[in-house]
């Protein structure tokens, strides 16, 4: 049901009006709504329900170590040259796996596995082997390549031979953080990977028959212009990755210390950022990529595009996914779990994470059990952000509510957005327009009851 997106330059006035700061809605309620007084019994009850339902699992491992500091990065990371820290961390990861396996059972099929970070490719080949051995010891991973097993790599710090190791371990998807090929931009953010390195990796990925390759790009970095970024896109388009994530750089130095190393005067203006995004959007869609939503693009035969066409696309803490029927178990420092209607997050401090596991405790720091209203709004936001539409009949069927009464204030606000042609609203439901797709986060914000009292600083919608 993906339709072409209208050119952004024809909607500049609407963008100016609606381009506010807001959540990315990888969940609803969003992560900042988790409570530190979250009781462990809520987690245990969620796991017990998961055992009864026997839903398959999705595993996320947060591997926080990095060899160097990328100035733009807002991820939870540990920049270190002390590689012995990895083994100490992996020992705690295995302890956490054992704790959860005891509660969930080790026979549940794992449909999805993801190594994120940090920089997972910081691990040596032997350490990668060790982590996978630990995982298979405690969880049931399929050996027939039917699972969705993905890993993030730094293309400037990954040996081509490591890709063969990853494929041997069962990984069939790779996401590489390219960001930009312009050397001046790379120097300004301390993130280096050459065109030759990326091309060599792509050759190896295709040779080892990885199912899907994603490239992360960032617009809004220092010294970027529409012209310079066009050169980066030319290289990316020639390499033809299956997916492209085109992230908007959110400069928030008051929140992320590393961003203080970026000179504000070198950042493109809002108008320049808009131009970069406009031209990138046009280039990618003209070359055959489907705009999945927000900052994600995929080739028509990629699973994300297929799932969207078939109405199966979902969104969780890992972004757009096709396996949201799974219970998501996050392992490692700062990782987030989503089991049924309960979310929880591990502590963000690696020393605290390791100490708690050494004490025989789970490393959970905060969490939230969703209310019925949360569940209803989660469904609405998921439908809008994944499929750009909402059926009132389906909403009424699922939750037994009258949408016009339950969401009377929200529908009144949507009428204003409808007048600006961001969406159409009628008795059947909501359908988001081409302009509205670019502002889908703003549309979803209408249904977010937590925003009014939130003190969180979010990135801008565009």
Features:
17 helices, disordered N terminus, 2 domains, pyruvate-formate lyase- activating enzyme, 40% helix, ten-stranded mixed beta sheet, Arc Repressor Mutant, subunit A, three-stranded antiparallel beta sheet, 462 residues, alpha/beta
What topology does this entry show?
Elements: H1 12-18, H2 40-53, E1 57-63, E2 65-66, E3 78-79, H3 84-104, E4 109-117, H4 125-138, E5 140-141, E6 148-153, H5 160-169, E7 173-179, H6 183-189, H7 195-207, E8 212-219, H8 226-239, E9 243-248, H9 270-286, E10 290-293, E11 296-298, H10 303-309, E12 314-316, E13 319-321, E14 327-331, E15 336-339, E16 342-346, H11 350-358, E17 364-369, H12 372-387, E18 389-391, H13 392-399, H14 403-406, H15 408-419, E19 423-425, E20 429-432, H16 434-438, H17 440-445
Parallel strand pairs: 1-4, 1-14, 2-3, 4-5, 4-6, 6-7, 7-8, 8-9
Antiparallel strand pairs: 9-11, 10-11, 12-13, 15-16, 16-17, 18-20, 19-20
């Amino acid at each position: 049901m993906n339709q072409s997106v209208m050119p952004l330059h024809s909607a500049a006035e609407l963008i100016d009006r609606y381009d506010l700061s807001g959540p990315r809605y990888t969940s609803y309620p969003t992560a900042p709504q988790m409570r530190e007084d979250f009781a462990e019994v809520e987690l245990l009850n969620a796991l017990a329900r998961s055992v009864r339902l026997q839903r398959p699992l999705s595993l996320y491992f947060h591997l926080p170590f990095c060899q160097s500091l990328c100035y733009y990065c807002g991820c939870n990371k540990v920049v270190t040259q002390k590689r012995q820290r990895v083994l100490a961390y992996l020992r705690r990861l295995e302890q956490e796996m054992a704790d959860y396996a005891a509660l969930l059972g080790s026979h549940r099929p794992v449909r999805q596995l993801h190594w994120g970070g940090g920089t997972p490719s910081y691990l040596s080949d032997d350490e990668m082997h060790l982590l996978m051995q630990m995982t298979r010891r405690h969880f049931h991973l399929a050996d027939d390549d039917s699972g969705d097993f993905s890993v993030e790599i730094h293309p400037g710090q990954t040996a081509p031979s490591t890709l063969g190791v990853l494929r041997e371990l069962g990984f069939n998807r790779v996401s590489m953080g390219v960001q930009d090929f312009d050397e001046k931009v790379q120097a300004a953010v301390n993130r280096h990977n050459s065109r030759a390195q990326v091309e060599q990796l792509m050759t190896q990925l295709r040779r080892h028959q990885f199912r899907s390759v994603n490239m992360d790009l960032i617009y809004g970095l220092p010294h970027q212009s529409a012209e310079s970024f066009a050169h980066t896109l030319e290289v990316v388009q020639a390499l033809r990755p299956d997916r492209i994530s085109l992230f908007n750089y959110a400069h928030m130095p008051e929140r992320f210390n590393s961003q203080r190393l970026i000179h504000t005067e070198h950042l493109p203006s809002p108008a320049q950022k808009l131009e970069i995004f406009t031209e990138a959007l046009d280039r990618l869609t003209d070359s055959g990529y489907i705009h999945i939503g927000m900052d994600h693009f995929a080739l028509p035969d990629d699973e994300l595009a297929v799932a969207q066409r078939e109405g199966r696309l979902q969104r969780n803490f890992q972004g757009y996914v096709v396996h949201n029927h799974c219970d998501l178990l996050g392992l490692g420092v700062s990782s987030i779990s989503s089991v049924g209607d309960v979310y929880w997050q591990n502590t963000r401090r690696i020393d605290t994470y390791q100490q708690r596991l050494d004490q025989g405790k789970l490393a959970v720091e905060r969490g939230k059990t969703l209310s019925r209203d949360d569940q209803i709004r989660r469904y609405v936001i998921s439908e809008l952000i994944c499929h750009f539409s909402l059926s009132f009949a389906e909403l009424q069927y699922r939750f037994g509510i009258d949408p016009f009464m339950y969401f009377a204030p929200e529908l009144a606000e949507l009428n204003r957005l409808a007048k600006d042609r961001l969406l159409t609203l009628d008795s059947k439901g909501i359908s988001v327009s081409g302009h509205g797709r670019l502002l889908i986060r703003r549309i979803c914000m209408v249904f977010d009851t937590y925003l009014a009292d939130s003190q969180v600083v979010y990135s801008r919608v565009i």
